[in-house]
Amino acid sequence: MDMSTPMGHGPKMKLVMVGNGMAGVRTLEELLKLAPDLYDITVFGAEPHPNYNRILLSPVLAGEQTVDDIILNPTDWYADNAIHLHMGRKVVKIDRSARFVEAEDGTRAEYDRLLLATGSNPFMLPVPGADLEGVISFRDIADVDAMIRASSQYRHAVVIGGGLLGLEAANGLMKRGMDVTVVHIGPWLMERQLDEPAARLLQKSLEEKGMKFLLQKQTAELVKGDSGRVSAIRFKDGDSAPADLVVMAVGIRPNTELAESAGLHCNRGIVVNDTMQTFDPRIYSIGECAAHRGVAYGLVAPLFEQAKVCANHLAHYGIGRYQGSVTSTKLKVTGIDLFSAGDFIGGEGTESILYSDPIGGVYKKLVIKDNKLVGGVMYGDTVDGAWYFSLLRDGKNVSELRDHLMFGQDHCGNLGHQGINKAATMTDDMEVCGCNGVCKGDIVKAIREKGLFTLEDVRKHTKASSSCGSCTGLVEQILAVTAGGDYSAAPKTKSVCGCTDHTHEAVREAIRENKLLTIPQVMTFMEWRTPNGCASCRPALNYYLISTWPGEAEDDPQSRFINERAHANIQRDGSYSVIPRMWGGQTTPAELRRIADVAEKYAIPSVKVTGGQRIDLLGVKKEDLPKVWADLDMPSGHAYGKALRTVKTCVGSEWCRFGTQDSTQMGIDLEKMFFKMWAPHKVKLAVSGCPRNCAEVAIKDVGIIGVDSGWEIYVAGNGGIKTEVAQFLVKVKTADEVIEYSGAFLQLYREEARYLDRTVHYVERVGLDYVKKKILDDADNRRALYERLLFALSVERDPWVERAREGKLKHEFETVAA
Amino acid sequence: MNNWTDILDVNDIPKLGARVVRHGNLDIAVFRTADDEIFALEDRCPHKGGPLSQGIVHGRKVACPMHNWNIELDSGCAVAPDQGCAREFPIKVEGSRVWLDLSAVERVAA
Prior knowledge:
By secondary structure, chain A is of the alpha/beta class. Helices cover about 30% and strands about 20% of the residues of chain A. By secondary structure, chain B is mostly beta strands.
């Protein structure tokens, strides 16, 4: 078979897509981005509409949006992209040997590649009367139109199926003024997403809105009325209820009819591999009709993942595999807040944490197995849904979060959204993302205008939730309400960045095991996809190289973020700030005089005392930096680096009447010992001379508290975005021990943490017990770690001295006149 | 009329780096890729004016040091979905010397 590709000149290849829904059109959009001119594209859609957002049929039914609002790609879009669009034409035949498809009306299209995106069909109960007028499903715009028409003429509606779709239909019909009864075969509503207590709360609040429920009822027959239209529903137990409209929402089935008729292998969907190809390699399939590893997905995020992978292969890029998704659910009924994911029932070997406030209408249940969150259901307050979902997806060990897990991310130390937990109550001008100044209205607008569906999309377009991430829960809620997006995502493998699929750990191991010494070596060895990486991976690789092979791997300034290349902090106006080191926060009149002189001589506009007991000179011109450093004649403070920053101290026993130890000297000794230490992220230390803890050691990476009988060492504390109190590591007697234990901990972090992880993230990941095992239980290992740190530090020089006195990398600070 | 001016040597610019060339009040970032391609853009990110010369160069892009927008060196335009373009200037390499068309710079500065 000829599978070659006409690239460049000559006739274009022909791509035909059957099915004009969200997953399919998303694939075309991705494809057009990658290879706009590769294909001549033809699209067949059975419905007489362009691509619309099927998830938002519920709000259309409820009268909250119109059909026009939910159109994603107007017909202009197809025309602009030279796509031949056949609306209202159902394809009934694929001829795989002659390679064409044929629609009901005889329209034919030839293909080189065929994409089947036929979606799914509603399942209709095979009961007598199922074909009566007034019996419909809830699947497309025609169904919604039929429901809206019925609501203006008739009174009694029955929805069969108390799942997600059924409840949304019932809610919409109720809003249209109908008297709605939901018939459900199960003992409680939404049993695939909710446990019984949450379902009861949901039922109660829907009943308060006027919805009626008949649970554990099996439909026997739909009864024909005098007009020929359905008039009642009869159950197997003999009961009956009036029904002028019956909506069947008992499930969907992948639409495989066409694929099966063409002899393609189907098994609960059109079977596809990880590149979304069917058993005929010219034919791809994605969306609700496709069965990937035995699963046919029905939520947007996984389908869009599939679309991305499929487009990638259609574009001949040949990278990317779809590996399945973990999914979660939200119900789109205005005023009802509900979230569920994973195994929320639990069973053998699982434990549950419950929170129930029936009066307040809040219920939460988290299911834990082997110290990992495996599922959860939340009703009434779902702001932490995204957080729980990420814990679940990443398989994070939650043993240390257990105590406050139930109370959400706020209680685990995150700040940033002022305790607001309901996006629905926010007005458009209220700020959601405090880091990037993004208001709710901005996000809603971007979602509507740009057709965004996933958190990643929103982050890219609006920058909301893209910095510290503490507003993620709110953004997810806004997304769910506005576009019907969900939390689903492909399993996270934590690759270093988009340039590679390798994890941080794999990269570090390769560097260590194969003695890779330069960034190009790593990229060649690990088959990077880009010629020289990106602004995310290059700094990480540079750190991994110099920390693994100190003295042998050469530091690459072009792979350093500007602050670490210029050894000063870039400011918003392009000027720089300079913070000289003051050991342990101590200074002298002579140093202060030099600082004052420098500030005047170079007209430095701002002089500020920092939070780390030093002095910051702000607004220095880049070309002045080497001269400023020379005149200051003080060591680099590394305030610009992922490196040892400050060692904050109190005055200690030398002056303080409460002091039990000389904390100032201890701080100076620690700072001199670890000076010039590069790390995965910034590192801050503090030493207090007594338990009153004036140096605030509890929020430092390493915090030391002097007590009468020695020193207590705390690790992995954090201020900033994620406030986390440091954990007690060990108590030691001597100053030498303080330095050895602290050094060993820092070296462990340097060797094992992912780039840009603070100690708090690292210890959260590996657990404090692991750290204790490496440092406390194994004295040889502790000394070896400490020795390795000392060696790494021995080859580092003060970068300010090198640049101010020895002219290193002069070009960095010189402007060329022209 | 063109005003091609010899401004610096290719080797004055670090590979995967940039130099700032100043003409009057205007800063121009002159970039060098791994393959020694040379590009000149106004040293202002279309987002919030960050100095592009200070960013990390990768492939034929530079990541702005302020908020990490990626700018295409050949067009000066931001990589989607970000929008906006930094002004580009005509530049050429003869032997190892880099020449900038100052007339284009002056039209902007004026």
